[in-house]
């Protein structure tokens, strides 16, 4: 009997090891394949030049910039709101109906398909405001997508600060708010930063919510123009623009350039590499901040 | 004395009340945001039934979708059953494929080799989460679709009349299963990790093997958490748009087998919204689909809470 | 060129996007004061938005009358900027080069399901279709299928042009249709009744499957919108960009509809 | 025991939800004395300690009836909570320095209470660290993280942090239970010095420690004070059988 | 102390990574006796206890040298780990019932070891609960969740769970430290009964408990056994100054 149990144990362990190995292999294959397919495009001129629907040799400069720009804008929107809401949920929320409702809202927002949020953005930010497709509307839409995640991250990292530290501050006569601002948030920073970088990665790759808000195409930009009010400045948030992920989708569904496939491969490789970069930097930064705060 | 009071009030305002009010406002803002989302989507989505006087019953249960059909040929039809059925079945397939692997991985990470789990698998899972859905779609289209196409052509038991493009329910389900795998895996990993060490220790101390402990003690104890992960994975599969749209074949007929082409709610919205004229029945019907998606995703949350409540009953 | 400052926005047909986009780039390069934003979104959106005044020019693959209510369409001014030709395409492995109208109709209505019935080898025909609101499909249905409706129960298979190209190229036995701008050696364009689907044949009138591409304005165009549409019709665009993108210049057309 | 009363309570009851954790506590705590609270786990020692600086206000389903007086003022009615906590400092079981520099840990309290001048802060930091017998060990590394200190040093840092806001009463909840014997001794010595200036209330599970450092001892059992007296009497001639049982280790 | 040896160790060293937690432990544990392990926090009591049923195998960076013998067989070489743990049961500090019914908790072990017959299981459950002095309290609610029991009942349930697999040795790591006085007494009585059939090794931080229930006592300090002797001798005439200091509460 014991022998049988032990054999089962061995078999189960072996199976689990095999599955784990397969998973790792799958990722290596997946990422390796994408990067391999796109490697001929991994050069500076591809990364910086304009897309071209007429001839081969177009690049992904503006879409790449737009993706980054939307990440920055949406962080600028979600961080203050998400941090505030996270502080509220972690520190002030009493177990009342209101709290329950907020909690439900966070969960509901988090579970909404991004295309539904895209349509909402289309209706409200694009049509009702009369702005048309524009980056800012896109940033707002992905912010809605991201807000519950950011709120959760902020709430969790504040909650993860040891209770003893909070008690210490209160026991000295600090108000609750002073404790939050001066002790809890600084303590929560390592967790916050890692979480935020990872979610930024998700914004970077989002497409469905952006197709209907920031649009699927842009117009030529003047990368020497830093006046955000000027319509040809890349910093102008009220211009239509395609992000890298949207660009891949578009090239795939209606690309006319002769090298459309290669361009999509190259852009995918860039996206995958960005995901790696987001991950690695969050790890490194997280470790660094943790060490810094732990005084090592 | 009263000056002292004043100062004190000012200080209290600055050091506590102001901050508290601001964060409370943003907490409440989340409710407002959710309500306005529901309101706007509903206001569009309901006009199909209120303004265009279409039957909600037909919308849900008829499979004839042709919003532009001329009056002479029977007038517009907006039966969404094909899409609803497609969304459900493609998510179900994804879940069936993904769940065993995800749960296995979570067990591996928490119980078999926490070291490999933390150092290798966790980053791997995070990267899988981070890969944009268009990339999944693109790989699905360029690698999986030709592969499945070959399969449908060569395998003897597949009815060649159905579909040999390689696009279809199975392909969509496979792509989705990779996409939702990290969600399920990481949540069930958390559920396992959250179990007190006690359970494992107690079981080992009684002479149970590792697998016995996992199967008889740990999995039952972590089940509510795992189910939550599975429902969230399902929700994610249900809501995914582009990756599915690229590989499912977008056929407006009920699929005859898992190799057949199908369509989903998200997919048809993605493809047709741009060409629909605002305010027409066609556009309104697409909004109704969006409303339906919203309702279903809220349902998922309710289900998760039911599971959670059951879980807390055990504890 | 004439310096003509101002800002306009254009949106609509995704088929026309590359043309409008490239022309706009050229135009702005020549007229540094002007800003033209071109967006896709679909013909439906283009028509809606130009009617609502949200954009200055709405691009469409189809006549406004086919999408909007008659009283709405009346307010719009049509500017035909070029012609798009549409070809039936098959997977390169299909051993058929020519097809008759009747055969095409039979295939798309589900009467013929094997290539051997149209002179090819014994191979199942895989139909790949476009959404019912696609301009390409409307044109193909009208001029290649003579308006024939798919037989009840036959699949309506949806996809977008780029995906159609990709799918046809990798699915043995498949058939679909694409605008000329998507044609390359990944798919094989079929002769229709012996006529090759080329721009020359469209222009001469011997190849019938084509449609006008429209730029709509609300009322008479003014300012930059007017000069841009004029530019679209100028030789600059018509002899350079239009043929490069495999559209057919208006002035080449020896037939009219 | 009536002279120099610093704190006293009147019929203090405390409920966590419906669960009564303190029952009719009446205790009088003398100024500049060390009062020890002993009793088995869960008897309410920590809970009682926290009623004195209203740390229980943090927990929402707590209900308190009865009164607590500090210098004859009702702690729950006549005090602003910030003032109260400034006057009644607290040291916890596990050292809990903030993850900041040693200097910032000490300066935190004074800053919170409005002191901004750098020289003044420097002064307070030095004085508090000296009072907590830590100055010599850390004076060269004030800018380094407090988390790099040893457990015993951290606990003295926490004491210094409390002293920096110039409290009158210092509450200590098992301050040495996480420390090694040598650090424990240092803290015990420190407590002995501090009682000259401060009133100290200390919870300990170590009977011998209570015997060594306290002047008065209260024995808690399931939320009640069974016996309260001079330490010497409690340990040598306990008047209650349960006290005796506990002190001789019959349970707990 | 040489007759009826159940367990003995030879130069047992244990390292967590590079940190040595046990140093040259040589101890001889007598059959059907209660052996108490005492010492300050972190001295290695729990660590040592776990070497006896190889629970340390769960932690990956543990390195063990030296030998442990059970019935003259080397625990690390001549035993199958599952057999070993069946013969050497363990009760933990915090009661840790599985989140299942009372019945299933007890039946878990026998089932694991291959017993499937329902009547046989019923029998074992009843016998074990009786042995753990819990039967009367729970016999009417065997199908209810074990998590609904009180702390003391849970701990007895855990003991019953161990007894159900019929061990020879029972290791207990501070089994009463989370319990109230009355439950503690019940468990102490139980231990007294159990030693007729089982060999018991118990870690306790409560010196008086060690005095009350054990036959032999080992005093641990920073990973070493300072003194090991009959309990009476250890408490009355300790031969080592450190033992005396500890027992009289000078530290810890
Ligand atoms: N936040 C809380 N919510 C509910 N009950 C609590 C809470 N804190 C403590 N209790 C309960 O109140 C009682 C007294 O707890 P308290 O922490 O004061 O005991 P203690 O004497 O300090 O014990 P220990 O020596 O273990 O620290 C216990 O029964 C405990 O379970
Ligand atoms: N898993 C582990 N990894 C690394 N070090 C450990 C681990 N477990 C215990 N230690 C260390 O080994 C030493 C002995 O620990 P052990 O738990 O055996 O002490 P103990 O005598 O049982 O203390 P207590 O009375 O607090 O339970 C301690 O210094 C502890 O920090
Ligand atoms: Mg306490
Ligand atoms: Mg221990
Ligand atoms: O250009 P389309 O309308 O066929 O997408």
Automatic annotation (TrEMBL), chain A:
Q: How does it sit in the membrane?
A: Multi-pass membrane protein
Entry keyword Ubl conjugation: no
Q: Which Gene3D superfamilies match?
A: MetI-like
Q: Name one GO biological process term.
A: phosphate ion transmembrane transport
The record places domain ABC transmembrane type-1 at 64-281
Coiled coil (UniProt feature): none
Chief location category: membrane
Molecular function GO terms recorded? phosphate transmembrane transporter activity
Pfam families tied to this protein? BPD_transp_1
Tell me the superkingdom of the source: Bacteria
UniProt KW keywords? Cell membrane, Membrane, Transmembrane, Transmembrane helix, Transport
**What GO cellular component is one of the record's annotations?**
plasma membrane
Subcellular location(s) of the protein: Cell membrane
KW Ubl conjugation (keyword) present: no
Ranges annotated as spanning the membrane: 12-36, 68-89, 101-125, 131-150
Q: Which PANTHER family match?
A: ABC TRANSPORTER PERMEASE PROTEIN YQGI-RELATED, PHOSPHATE TRANSPORT SYSTEM PERMEASE PROTEIN PSTA-RELATED
In the record, the note on similarity to other proteins reads:
Belongs to the binding-protein-dependent transport system permease family. CysTW subfamily.
Could you identify this protein by its name?
A: Phosphate transport system permease protein PstA
* The organism of origin for this protein: Pseudobacteroides cellulosolvens ATCC 35603 = DSM 2933
From TrEMBL, chain B:
Using the record, list the residue span of the signal peptide; answer none if the entry has no such feature: none
**Cellular component, GO annotation:** plasma membrane
A Pfam match is BPD_transp_1
Which InterPro entries is this protein grouped with? MetI-like, MetI-like_sf, Phosphate_PstC, Phosphate_Transport_Permease
Q: Could you give a GO molecular-function term held by this entry?
A: phosphate transmembrane transporter activity
Keyword Disulfide bond present in the record's keywords: the answer is no
Q: Which keywords does this Swiss-Prot/TrEMBL entry list?
A: Cell membrane, Membrane, Phosphate transport, Transmembrane, Transmembrane helix, Transport
What membrane topology was assigned to this protein in its record?
Answer: Multi-pass membrane protein
Q: Which terms under GO biological process does the entry name?
A: phosphate ion transport
Q: Where is the ABC transmembrane type-1 domain?
A: 84-304
Q: Which domain of life is it from?
A: Bacteria
Q: Which family does it belong to?
A: Belongs to the binding-protein-dependent transport system permease family. CysTW subfamily.
What does the function comment of this entry state? Part of the binding-protein-dependent transport system for phosphate; probably responsible for the translocation of the substrate across the membrane.
Q: What is this protein called?
A: Phosphate transport system permease protein
From TrEMBL, chains D, E:
Q: Which residues form the signal peptide?
A: none
Q: What's a single GO BP term from this record? A: phosphate ion transmembrane transport
What are the GO MF terms of this UniProt record? Answer: ATP binding; ATP hydrolysis activity; phosphate transmembrane transporter activity
- Where in this chain does the record put each ABC transporter domain? 7-247
Specify the enzyme's EC class, one word.
hydrolase
Tell me the PROSITE patterns matching this sequence: ABC_TRANSPORTER_1, ABC_TRANSPORTER_2
Keywords, in A-Z order: ATP-binding, Cell membrane, Hydrolase, Membrane, Nucleotide-binding, Phosphate transport, Translocase, Transport
Chief place where the protein resides: membrane
**One Gene Ontology cellular component annotation held by this UniProt entry:** plasma membrane
Q: Which CDD domains match?
A: ABC_PstB_phosphate_transporter (cd03260)
Q: Which Gene3D superfamilies match?
A: P-loop containing nucleotide triphosphate hydrolases
What is this entry's stated membrane topology?
Answer: Peripheral membrane protein
Q: List localization entries.
A: Cell inner membrane
Keyword presence, Glycoprotein: no
What EC number(s) has UniProt assigned to this enzyme? 3.6.3.27
Q: Does the keyword Transport apply?
A: yes
Role, per record: Part of the ABC transporter complex PstSACB involved in phosphate import. Responsible for energy coupling to the transport system.
| Name this polypeptide is given | Phosphate ABC transporter, ATPase subunit
Natural source organism = Pseudobacteroides cellulosolvens ATCC 35603 = DSM 2933
Higher taxonomy: Bacteria, Bacillati, Bacillota, Clostridia, Eubacteriales
């Amino acid at each position: 009997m014991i022998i049988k149990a032990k054999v089962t144990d061995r078999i189960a362990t072996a199976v689990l090891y095999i599955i784990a190995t397969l998973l790792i292999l799958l990722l290596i294959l997946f990422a390796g394949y994408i990067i391999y397919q796109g490697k001929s495009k991994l050069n500076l001129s591809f990364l910086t030049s304009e897309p071209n629907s007429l001839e081969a040799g177009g690049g992904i400069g503006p879409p790449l910039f737009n993706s980054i720009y939307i990440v920055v804008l949406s962080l600028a929107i979600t961080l203050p709101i998400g941090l505030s809401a996270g502080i509220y949920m972690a520190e002030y929320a009493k177990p009342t109906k209101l709290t329950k409702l907020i909690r439900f809202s966070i969960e509901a927002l988090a579970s909404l398909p991004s295309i539904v949020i895209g349509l909402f953005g289309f209706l409200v930010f694009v049509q009702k405001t009369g702005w048309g497709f524009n980056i800012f509307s896109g940033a707002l839409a992905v912010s809605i997508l991201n807000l519950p995640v950011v709120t959760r991250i902020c709430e969790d990292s504040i909650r993860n600060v040891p209770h003893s530290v909070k008690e210490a501050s209160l026991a000295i006569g600090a108000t609750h708010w002073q404790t939050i601002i001066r002790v809890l948030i600084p303590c929560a920073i390592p967790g916050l930063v890692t979480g935020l970088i990872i979610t930024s990665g998700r914004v970077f790759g989002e497409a469905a919510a952006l197709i209907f808000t920031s649009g699927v195409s842009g117009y030529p930009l003047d990368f020497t123009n830093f006046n955000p009010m000027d319509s040809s400045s890349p910093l102008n948030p009220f211009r239509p623009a395609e992000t890298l992920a949207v660009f891949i989708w578009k090239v795939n569904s209606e690309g006319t350039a002769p090298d459309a496939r290669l361009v999509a491969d190259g852009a995918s490789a860039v996206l995958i590499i960005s995901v790696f970069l987001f991950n690695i930097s969050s790890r490194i930064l997280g470790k660094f901040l943790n060490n810094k705060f732990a005084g090592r | 004395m009263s000056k002292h009071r004043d100062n004190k009030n000012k200080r209290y305002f600055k050091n506590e009340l102001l901050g508290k009010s601001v964060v409370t406002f943003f907490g409440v803002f989340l409710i407002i945001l959710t309500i306005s989302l529901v309101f706007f989507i509903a206001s569009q989505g309901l006009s199909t039934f209120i303004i265009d006087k279409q039957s909600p019953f037909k919308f849900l249960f008829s499979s004839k979708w042709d919003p532009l059909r001329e009056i002479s040929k029977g007038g517009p039809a907006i039966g969404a059953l094909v899409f609803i059925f497609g969304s459900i079945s493609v998510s179900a397939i994804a879940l069936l494929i993904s769940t065993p692997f995800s749960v296995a991985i979570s067990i591996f990470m928490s119980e078999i080799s926490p070291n490999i789990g933390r150092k290798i698998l966790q980053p791997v899972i995070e990267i899988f989460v981070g890969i944009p859905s268009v990339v999944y779609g693109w790989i699905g289209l360029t690698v999986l679709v030709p592969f499945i196409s070959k399969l449908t052509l060569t395998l003897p038991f597949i009815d060649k009349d159905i579909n040999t493009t390689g696009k279809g329910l199975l392909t969509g389900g496979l792509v989705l299963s990779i996409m939702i795998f990290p969600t399920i895996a990481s949540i069930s990993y958390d559920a396992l990790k959250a179990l007190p060490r006690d359970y494992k220790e107690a079981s080992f101390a009684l002479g149970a093997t590792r697998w016995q402990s996992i199967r008889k003690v740990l999995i039952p104890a972590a089940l509510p958490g795992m189910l939550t992960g599975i429902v969230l994975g399902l929700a994610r599969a249900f809501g995914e748009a582009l990756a599915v749209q690229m590989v499912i074949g977008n056929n407006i007929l009920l699929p005859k087998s898992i190799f057949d082409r199908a369509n989903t709610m998200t997919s048809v919205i993605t493809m047709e919204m741009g060409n629909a004229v605002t305010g027409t029945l066609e556009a309104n019907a697409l909004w109704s689909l969006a409303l339906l998606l919203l309702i279903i995703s809220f349902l998922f949350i309710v289900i998760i809470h039911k599971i959670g409540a059951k879980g807390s009953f055990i504890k | 060129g004439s310096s003509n400052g101002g800002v306009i926005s254009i949106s609509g047909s995704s088929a026309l996007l590359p043309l409008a986009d490239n022309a706009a780039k050229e135009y702005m390069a020549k007229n540094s004061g002007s800003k033209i934003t071109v967006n896709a979104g679909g013909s439906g959106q283009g028509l809606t938005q130009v009617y609502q005044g949200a954009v200055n020019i709405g691009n469409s693959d189809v006549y406004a009358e086919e999408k909007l209510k008659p009283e709405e369409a009346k307010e719009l001014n049509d500017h035909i900027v070029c012609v798009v030709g549409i070809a039936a395409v098959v997977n390169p492995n299909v051993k058929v080069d020519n097809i008759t109208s009747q055969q095409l109709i039979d295939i798309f209505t589900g009467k013929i399901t094997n290539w051997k019935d149209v002179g090819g080898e014994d191979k199942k025909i895989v139909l790949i279709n476009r959404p019912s609101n696609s301009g390409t499909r409307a044109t193909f249905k009208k001029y290649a299928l003579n308006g024939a409706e798919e037989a009840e129960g036959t699949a309506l298979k949806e996809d977008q042009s780029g995906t159609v190209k990709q799918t046809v190229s990798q699915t043995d036995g498949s058939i679909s249709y694409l605008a000329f701008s998507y044609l390359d050696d990944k798919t094989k364009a079929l002769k229709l009744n012996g006529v090759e689907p080329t721009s020359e044949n469209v222009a001469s009138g011997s190849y019938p499957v084509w449609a006008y591409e429209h730029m709509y304005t609300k009322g008479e165009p003014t300012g930059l919108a007017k000069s841009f549409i004029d530019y679209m019709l100028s030789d600059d665009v018509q002899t350079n960009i239009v043929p490069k993108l495999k559209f057919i210049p208006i002035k080449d057309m020896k037939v009219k509809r | 025991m009536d002279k120099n009363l610093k704190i006293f309570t009147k019929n203090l009851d405390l409920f966590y939800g419906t669960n009564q954790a303190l029952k009719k506590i009446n205790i009088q705590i003398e100024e500049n004395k060390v009062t020890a609270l002993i009793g088995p786990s869960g008897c309410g020692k920590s809970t009682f300690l926290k009623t004195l600086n209203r740390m229980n206000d943090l927990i929402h389903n707590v209900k308190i009836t009865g009164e607590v007086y500090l210098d004859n003022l009702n702690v729950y009615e006549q005090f602003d909570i910030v003032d109260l906590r400034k006057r009644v400092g607290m040291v916890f079981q596990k050292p809990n320095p903030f993850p900041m520099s040693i200097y910032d840990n000490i300066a935190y309290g004074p800053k919170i209470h409005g002191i901004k001048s750098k020289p003044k802060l420097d002064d307070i930091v030095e004085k508090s660290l000296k009072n907590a017998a830590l100055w010599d060990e850390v004076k060269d590394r004030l800018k380094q993280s407090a988390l790099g200190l040893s457990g015993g040093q951290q606990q003295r840092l926490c004491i210094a942090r409390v002293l920096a806001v110039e409290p009158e009463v210092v509450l200590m909840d098992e301050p040495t239970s996480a420390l090694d014997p040598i650090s424990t001794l240092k803290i015990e010595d420190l407590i002995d010095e501090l009682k000259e200036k401060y009133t100290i209330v200390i919870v300990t599970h170590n009977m011998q420690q209570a015997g060594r450092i306290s002047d008065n001892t209260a024995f808690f059992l399931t939320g009640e004070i069974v016996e309260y007296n001079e330490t010497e009497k409690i340990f040598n001639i306990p008047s209650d059988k349960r006290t005796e049982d506990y002190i001789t280790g019959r349970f707990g």
